[in-house]
TrEMBL record:
Residues 293-756 form the Glycosyl hydrolase family domain. Residues 759-768 have a biased composition (Basic and acidic residues). The keyword Nucleotide-binding does not apply. This is Glycoside hydrolase family 92 protein.
Length: 779
């Protein structure tokens, strides 16, 4: 998901500071984590955060450079933009690569000297508590972030556990040390979205609080517990509500400061520690439920005071997670590959306390007894490759993911699976019911450990909930009429694919009546096909296509979701063979694909559609509807053209620098595309057991599977002079087809690519060698 509208509607200046000797090079981690650069995506439109977290962790402790109002928040959806020159603090929750903003909870800022209570203007140094910084002082590693706050001379270091954020602040000698806690900021809208907050200091010095926000998921409540490694010398808690009156709230105004407790909408705490002789450590736990659970999380997961040990644990967690794949590749490719794998392992996030409590979409508290509850589901994005990647690499984790989806459905007031949810709550962002293919893909590929019957009930309930996205008309007419519902063409196409995936799982479970119903619905894509124009289009309730028609038009209210006809007319992953026939056969299909990629398109064409980026012709790699398209040449007997397009995409859309992503990472989807494509295959049709073969971009990759087997991909010679696949062998035997079965990967063995300078136009040309999905599965 990218832009705000569809979801709302459905360099250092003036001051330098000495950096501790070796700060940029000391303690560089060994292992796979050493190849991760979390700065990739933190500039441009990548929307990733550079801070500390662990795989799928509840905490994302990261610097925030800005928290603008929602109208200007797009580029700061992760709270940080690499081009910024000041930091307003370090908060504990962030999305990775989303196109919408929220979170930024429990913002902490260390201050040396005088304390200001407002963040100030980044263009006016000294106007508030924010501080300038230099990228030269940053250390950004998997599980660790450090920076020097230039205006204070404070060295800030961050690391994280699953539920705990760990801070270490080294203050300059001779200056009073303070920690400011600001409960007003939200990445969605600074100060204006806090409905209520509480803050108090307990007798033992533990600081706790909660706040309820009116952001993307209205009514979201988050609580926290915080402890310091040294005793406070004094403190003050303030409610500055008069300062947010301009947001439309007419409150009682600023209330008197208090040293023990405050309630209100604009709470700030300042904790004083005098002149310190050693670094100050801070640990923070969060809870979606209450303060008591936050304290319990802190007690269980955050014992002791040993920042370096916690940093080592975070690094070890990443080394273990990333070691699932070993690759042989040049340094830059290693950085891109392991950073992509890292980003693909950030979401969904743990959203459950140590006692099993979690918040559901009904806003009630539920308890998971024998599984871990995860949320942060950008399902329109991650069903395509990020979740299939987890099924391949970590099927045990996928079991908990699916159980979490089922639990959310069971707690939903509407009885349907999540659409775009975080911290248990629903936002209704984007289209489709894409939790369905997430579950079906896992089941088809052998993931078990969840109640399949409950899953099927949840899937059918989601696919038949008439009020959602005009499913009522879809079920009645076989398409979503554009005069009843915006983006009708996209919705028709995506519903039809989701229906197909549901049918695959139903068939595998022996539920043939359910399968028959949804196999029929899966053919509804044909109702969006217009043979006269050769594009997918939206129809009116009377069956006519909407006029006038411009295949280049994009934007909210058009026939399409974050795309145009050129981008969406390829979205029939369940029946590519049928789409080829509709377009007039292989030659015409290939010619139209070539026209897509080779078109002369000025990026300014989409200047008002912030989501459509990474253009190669009309192909837009920066947004998900295009992600499968390069592989479609395989289905028309021209895999050499897939190989050409993949190299074109890899060379232009990914780079090992902060602005090295063509578009939002979208909770790991852009990154998962890179991982799969670098390995040489891609799940064009999740919920089939097929992967379309492309070409590898690493000389060797060993995938260490959960069943103790290893599947190795190798390629030689692998260089720019040999971009084409000459031949492929699987376990030493020639592989004439251009697809792999999931079971073949699970069996272990070796897939070898012999690369060559010129295309092999015969390999994969015949019908029987092509990926087939719908036609092969008997529909």
């Amino acid at each position: 998901m990218r832009g705000l509208l569809p979801c709302l509607l459905g360099a250092l200046v003036g001051i330098t500071v000495a950096v501790p000797a070796g700060a940029r090079t000391a303690n560089i981690p060994a292992g796979h984590a050493a190849s991760v650069d979390p700065r990739i995506g933190s500039g441009g439109d990548g929307h990733t955060f550079p801070g500390a977290t662990v795989p799928f962790g509840m905490i994302q402790l990261s610097p925030d450079t800005a928290m603008p109002d929602v109208k200007h928040a797009y580029k700061w959806a992760a709270g940080y933009q690499y081009a910024d020159t000041s930091i307003m603090g370090f908060s504990h929750t962030h999305f990775s690569g989303s196109g919408h903003s929220d979170l930024g909870d429990v913002l902490v800022m260390p201050i040396a000297g005088d304390v200001k209570l407002e963040p100030g203007d980044p263009g006016k140094p000294g106007s508030g508590y924010r501080s300038r910084f230099s990228h030269d002082s940053e250390v950004v590693q998997a599980g660790y972030y450090a920076v020097t706050l230039s205006d204070y001379g404070v060295r800030a270091e961050l690391t994280a556990g699953r539920r705990i954020g760990w801070h270490r602040y080294t203050f300059p000698a001779g200056k009073p040390a303070h920690v400011l806690l600001d409960l007003r900021p939200s990445i969605y809208d600074y100060a204006g979205k806090v409905a209520w907050a509480s803050l108090r200091v307990h007798e033992d010095g533990t600081v706790t609080g909660c706040r309820t926000t009116r952001g993307w998921a209205p009514g979201r409540e988050l609580c926290f517990a915080m402890r310091f490694s040294q005793s406070m010398t004094s403190r003050e808690l303030l409610n500055r509500e008069a300062d947010i009156a301009y947001k439309g709230f007419k409150g009682p105004g600023n209330q008197a400061e208090d040293s023990d407790a405050q309630n209100g909408r604009a709470l700030v705490g300042v904790f004083d520690f005098g002149k310190l002789k050693r670094p100050l450590e801070v640990k923070v736990a969060i809870s979606p439920v209450n303060e008591a659970n936050a304290i319990a999380n802190l007690d269980q997961d955050g014992s002791g005071w040993d920042f370096d040990a916690r940093r080592a644990e975070a690094k070890a967690a990443w080394d273990r997670a990333l070691a699932v794949i070993d690759i042989d590749a040049p340094t830059t490719t290693r950085t891109l590959f392991y950073t992509a794998l890292y980003h693909a392992m950030l979401s969904p996030t743990l959203s459950m306390d140590v006692n099993g409590d979690y918040r559901g979409p009904d806003h009630a508290v539920h308890r998971a007894k024998d599984f871990e509850f995860y949320s942060t589901w950008s399902l329109w994005d991650v069903y395509r490759a990020q979740q299939p990647l987890m099924v391949l690499l970590n099927p045990g984790r996928s079991t908990d993911f699916i159980r979490s989806l089922i639990a959310a459905q069971q707690a939903s007031p509407f009885g349907i699976l999540p659409v775009w949810a975080y911290q248990g709550l629903e936002t209704w962002c984007m289209i489709g019911y894409h939790a369905v293919p997430v579950i079906a893909d896992a089941y088809i590929k052998g993931v078990r450990g969840f109640d399949a019957d409950a899953a099927m009930r949840a899937m059918v309930a989601s696919a038949t909930y008439a009020p959602y996205g005009d499913l009522a008309d879809y079920m009645k007419l076989g398409y979503v009429p554009i005069d009843k519902e915006p983006e009708g063409a996209s919705k028709t196409l995506e519903y039809a694919y989701d229906d197909w995936s549901l049918a695959q799982m139903a068939k595998a479970m022996g539920k043939h009546d359910v399968a028959a119903t949804f196999v029929k619905r899966a053919t509804n894509w044909r109702n969006a096909w217009d043979p006269q124009t050769g594009f997918m289009r939206a129809r009116l309730s009377d069956g006519k296509f909407r006029e006038p028609f411009n295949p280049e038009a994009a934007g909210y209210g058009s026939d399409y979701t974050e795309g145009n006809a050129w981008q969406y007319s390829w979205y029939v992953p369940q029946d590519v063979a049928g789409l080829i026939r509709a377009m007039g056969g292989d030659a015409k299909f290939i010619a139209k694909l070539d026209a897509l990629f080779d078109a002369k398109v000025d990026a300014s064409h989409f200047k008002n559609v912030e989501d459509i980026t990474g253009l190669i012709g009309w192909y837009a790699h920066g947004n998900e509807p295009s992600h499968h398209i390069a592989y479609l040449y395989d289905y028309a007997g021209a895999p050499w053209k897939t190989q050409e397009r993949l190299k074109q995409i890899m060379d232009t859309q990914y780079a090992a620098r902060p602005d090295g992503m063509a578009g939002n990472d979208d909770l790991g989807q852009m990154s998962a595309w890179y991982v799969f494509s670098a390995l040489g295959f891609y799940p064009v049709t999740p919920a089939s057991d097929e992967y379309a073969i492309g070409r590898p971009f690493v000389a060797k990759a060993a995938i260490h599977l959960g069943n103790a087997r290893t599947f190795t991909v190798s390629a030689s010679p692998l260089d720019d002079a040999h971009p084409y696949v000459g031949a492929v062998t699987l376990n030493g035997k020639p592989l004439e087809r251009t697809y792999l079965h999931h079971t073949e990967i699970l069996a272990g063995g070796e897939l070898h690519f012999s690369m060559q300078a010129e295309p092999n136009r015969d390999w994969g040309k015949s019908d029987v060698t092509r990926p087939a999905a719908m036609s092969r599965y008997g529909q």
